Amino acid sequence: MAAWSDRDDTAHIDEERVARQLEIQAGRVAIVFDSQPLAIMVTLLVATILAVVLWPVISHDTILTWLALTYLVNTWRWAGTAVSRRRRRSSDVRWPGDTGRRQADC
User: N or C: at which end does the chain have fewer Cβ atoms within 10 angstroms?
Assistant: First the structure.
């Protein structure tokens, strides 16, 4: 009988460990997505400044293509961030560090 009890305790500890690891991973993902809006704005600002500085040196077609691709990729990043935030708000999952008092900033 004691052997079954020990196995149940071990299984319970493993389940708690897995749940804790999932909670930690969810927190990491939340941190990454929460930092995205600032990272996107800074990327677009620096890319625009760089394009202006390099305008007299590099082919205009090259600069405009690179700048358009940079804006396209960052638009995709913003869309992914917006979808992630909507999903987190609509789910019953409480993310670590989430106070539930966020304003709609997407």
Answer: N
Q: What is the DSSP letter of 10?
A: H
Q: Is residue 102 part of a domain?
A: no
Amino acid at 11: A
Alpha helices in the chain (DSSP H): 2-54, 60-90
For residue 42, being part of any structural domain is answered with yes
Region at 59 (left for phi over 0; alpha for psi -120 to 50; beta for the rest): beta
| Phi-psi category of residue 78: left, alpha or beta, with phi > 0 → left and psi -120 to 50 → alpha | alpha
C-alpha 11/C-alpha 17 separation (Å) is 10
Domain containing 14 equals: 2-90
Which token pair is 23? Answer: 């909670």
pLDDT tens-place string over residues 49-80? 999 999 999 999 999 999 999 999 999 989 88
Q: Residue 38's CB: how many other CB atoms inside 10 A?
A: 9
